[in-house]
């Protein structure tokens, strides 16, 4: 099985700024390290997520996504900022994973929002979530605002530089195949 980079967007829409950010970062990881890219958003998790109180209540669709995430060589996580945090269903998804599921997994964190006022959400909300799982979050996190895009494509050079930097930070955990 080819090593994978899995991108997970906390958005329910593949034409969202968040999905496009996760896709761009995942593509850079794929290019730099020769990993196979697979992207998911919240709609890919199926309908059982909102009803589930434990992982046994999830359907086969979401179990396939969980297996992909757990077996990935690297994760790229992106969330839209909602009331200074990540969306509740995104958190609920991770609540259903075993605490050891992501231990030692390298992760690039990213988020989008309407203004730079919420950029610290990455440090005060998202990073602690993955620290709980004992994942290895890269030091450089990426936060994008709407003005960083043109026709849903990233165009802000400083943001593209941060993506490159975060991708390079993966090198101690990845060797090109």
Automatic annotation (TrEMBL):
Protein name, per record: FMN reductase
Domain NADPH-dependent FMN reductase-like: residue ranges: 4-148
PANTHER family: FMN REDUCTASE (NADPH)
Keyword list, A-Z: Flavoprotein, FMN, Oxidoreductase
Protein family: Belongs to the SsuE family.
Organism of provenance: Xenorhabdus bovienii str. feltiae Moldova
Pfam families: FMN_red
Single GO MF descriptor: oxidoreductase activity
